[in-house]
Specification:
Elements lengths: L1 E5 L2 E4 L4 E8 L7 E7 L6 E7 L6 E2 L7 E6 L4 E6 L8 E8 L12 E4 L3 E6 L1
Parallel strand pairs: 2-11
Antiparallel strand pairs: 1-3, 3-8, 4-5, 4-9, 5-6, 7-8, 9-10, 9-11
Length: 124
């Protein structure tokens, strides 16, 4: 499974960005895709996740109400719409794929496949 994240960049506080993640390879064995982020000096943080078939999405507490994850299963694409960005959202954002479902979508240890990351920088 290969994952390619894109869409990061610089943005001012209050602005928006849309991240994309394209999956390829043997993705039929995976159940869902998630976004994680890592700020300098911090651990990876769960951002959002969604099953490939759509339906219930999961969000980290710090992004609820501002970020929206969506999936186009026909294209094997997952998107993260980020609105009302804050400087605290500055991080490298990674997409990852998991074989698991349900609440396991929140757990970083359950993700086996990772993309290369895309930098998001929010200035005040």
């Amino acid at each position: 499974v290969q994952l390619q994240a894109s869409g990061g960049g610089p943005v001012q506080a209050g602005g928006s960005l849309r991240l994309s993640c394209e999956a390829s390879g043997r993705i039929y064995g995976t159940h869902g895709l998630g976004w994680f982020r890592r700020a300098p000096g911090k651990e990876h943080e769960f951002v959002a996740a969604i099953p490939w078939v759509g339906g219930s999405a999961y969000y980290g507490d710090s992004v609820k109400g501002r970020f929206t994850i969506s999936v186009d299963s026909a294209k094997y694409m997952v998107y993260l719409q980020m609105n009302n960005l804050r400087p605290a959202d500055t991080a490298v954002y990674y997409c990852a794929a998991t074989l698991y479902s349900g609440d396991y979508l929140r757990q970083i240890d359950e993700y086996e496949y990772w993309g290369q990351g895309t930098q998001v920088t929010v200035s005040s």
